[in-house]
Write a structure and sequence with these properties.
This protein has 573 residues and is α/β, with parallel strands linked by helices. Helix content is 42%, strand content 17%. It folds into three domains: 282 residues, Alpha/Beta hydrolase fold, catalytic domain (Rossmann fold); 64 residues, no CATH class; 192 residues, Rossmann fold (3-Layer(aba) Sandwich). The longest helix is centred in the C-terminal third of the chain and has 26 residues.
């Protein structure tokens, strides 16, 4: 085979080592195969797999994870960074080869199987399919309360490493392969404890929510796996949304499937499934996903709760009504709604305040809720995405005009306007208090390049006025408040009618949230009703925008998988 070694820059500019292979004297089929190595290993060990005649015709790529093989970047201490690396690598390969995601198939082993599964769940890429080999959704730690102990230890030593108990004899029956593994000086025996614990947490989320994964998936499960729990792989598979999927039990196989004596069985299954994926037509699963999340919403809205939960939420509501006035955040939420712009403005400032020390303490705990932490990271990601597009447009010599159709006070856009005085910003919101607060912030900082207008984003008549034509449109933190796709479609159509051809859309999503039930039973919204949300998968959200001429080109997500910030280019098609 022809082989090339080089590096690529990942999402944070870190350089990661990669390899590419191509079978010589074989006509290219135009497709890309990416193979991801398992934990502790590196891309070099996959060369024998890439050399398989079943993969001839594919351009094959692999890379070394952080802290592995020839990659010099330090190990990932947050599992989601591995997911971001995969997203960056797929983008890099597609750009390099002039291909699209639909030309890509991925083989992922063990921990990489969780990485790839998380990626297709959170990012909703249009890759042809995945082959997951003994995915490590649940690792056998063989030590009581190991995960809890490690989480506690990491608080005192964030970069603590643990040495793997996995020996080569647990990976393969083949003595020769055991020796190769033992003699390989690039094998990394250690793993950051924080990476392991965040991996296990993320795996639970992805397995529980697999019904929102639309990607065709093959799962190869080893029946004598001493490293991971094979039963969870079946749970994951059973919930997958895609009708094109396959589960194969490999009898007698250890965890290192690709290095077992009968590994050709796995290769044949992968090659056959991959071929079928590239031959099949893409079908939309949006209707099925809407049914899934609508069912979840209805259960939260109308279903019964166990007595202990009823009591818990009742106590929380009573405490908020009786003591909420002490916390400025709760006070604002009770008055204007916990989904209002002024509530979010308090969350963004992240400065605990209230009546007496008790009020400040309550407010601090309130602001440290995982949902609000995710909201603040969403703001960081939105600022990064906005600045990225500003620079891109300015490099083209274009005057930048930004429109946020439902921005609230839009404190982050105040910061943008202050940093880029040459950029024109218009913020719209239907709540008068949000508009007034935004105007006060702009006046306080003497900004003349940002204006505020009271306008309802869900009134189609509000878009065909004023003649403002943005080349960056923003829809942030809005759609998750509304159940109906017909309603949010008004806003989508409105933005499509305004944004310039070749302009950009930045939109947020909430594909998952761990507190939906609690929020519905404890917090009220701006309409003085229960705050009940229907979450949308990233797949659903991207599809709705694609139908209006927006082609997604990038995405950011927090470490908990709650909030996304996506960028799309308006093609006008």
């Amino acid at each position: 085979m022809k082989s090339i070694e080089s590096t690529f820059k990942s999402f944070d500019e870190s350089e990661l080592f990669y390899r590419e292979w191509e079978h010589e004297d074989v006509k290219s089929n135009g497709h890309i195969l990416i193979i991801l190595h398992r934990g502790h290993e590196h891309s070099g060990r996959l060369e024998s797999i890439a050399a398989k005649p079943e993969f001839a015709g594919y351009k094959i790529f692999s890379y070394d994870n952080r802290g592995h093989g020839h990659t010099k970047a330090e190990p990932a201490y947050e599992f989601m960074d591995l997911v971001r690396d995969l997203d960056a690598f797929v983008s890099f390969v597609c750009d390099k080869e002039g291909k699209k995601q639909k030309d890509v198939f991925i083989i992922a082993n063990s921990v990489a199987g969780v990485t790839a599964s998380t990626w297709v769940h959170d990012y909703a890429p249009k890759v042809r399919g995945l082959a997951l080999i003994a995915p490590a959704f649940k690792i056998k730690l063989y030590f009581p309360f190991a995960k809890e102990f490690l989480k506690l230890a990491v608080k005192f030593k964030p970069k603590m490493n643990i040495k793997s108990y996995v020996k080569s004899k647990f990976l393969t029956h083949e003595k020769e392969e055991q020796k190769r593994y033992d003699d390989d000086t690039l094998i990394t025996p250690n793993i950051p404890a924080s990476q392991l614990t965040t991996l296990l947490d993320t795996a639970i989320r992805v397995v529980d929510d697999a019904q929102l994964i639309a990607t065709p998936i093959l799962v190869l499960s080893a029946t004598k796996d001493y490293v991971v729990d094979s039963k969870v792989q079946g749970d994951f598979y059973a919930s997958l949304a895609s009708p094109f999927k396959k589960f194969v039990q490999l009898e007698g196989f250890y965890h290192g499937v690709l290095y077992e004596s009968e590994h050709q069985k796995a290769i044949n299954e992968i090659a056959s499934f991959m071929e079928q994926c590239f031959e099949s037509e893409e079908t939309s699963l949006v209707k099925e996903m809407v049914k899934t999340t609508k069912k979840e919403q209805d259960k939260i809205a109308y279903g019964t709760l166990p007595l202990y939960k009823e009591a818990n939420y009742f106590i929380q509501r009573q405490m908020m009504q009786k003591l909420g006035f002490l916390s400025d955040g709760m006070k604002i939420g009770l008055k204007y709604g916990f989904d209002s712009g002024v509530t979010l403005d308090h969350v963004y400032k992240n400065e605990p305040s209230g009546v007496t020390w008790l009020g400040k303490m309550i407010d601090k705990n309130y602001l440290e809720s995982i949902g609000w932490k995710g909201i603040r990271q969403r703001k960081v990601n939105m600022i990064k995405a906005t600045e990225e597009k500003i620079v891109l447009l300015q490099e083209k010599g274009e005057k930048v005009r930004i429109l946020d159709i439902a921005g609230g006070p839009a404190r982050y856009l105040i910061e943008i306007a202050e940093k880029y005085p040459e950029v024109e910003v218009q913020v719209r919101d239907y709540q008068e208090q949000n508009v007034e607060e935004g105007r006060a912030l702009a006046k306080e900082r003497d900004l003349t390049n940002i204006t505020y207008t009271q306008s309802d984003a869900f009134d189609a008549n509000n878009y065909d006025v004023g003649g403002y034509r943005p080349n960056i449109a923003i829809i942030s933190g809005v759609f998750e408040l509304f159940e109906s796709n017909e309603l949010i479609g008004i806003a989508m159509d409105g933005v499509a009618s305004l944004v310039e051809d070749g302009g950009y859309l930045l939109y947020t999503g909430q594909p998952w949230h761990p507190q939906l039930e609690q929020i519905a039973n404890v917090l009220g919204n701006h309409q003085n009703t229960k705050w009940i949300m229907r979450r949308r998968s990233q797949y659903e959200l991207d599809y709705l925008f694609s139908q209006r001429g927006f082609e997604k080109e990038g995405m950011r997500i927090d470490d908990w998988g709650i909030f996304t910030v996506s960028s799309a280019k308006f093609t006008g098609k």
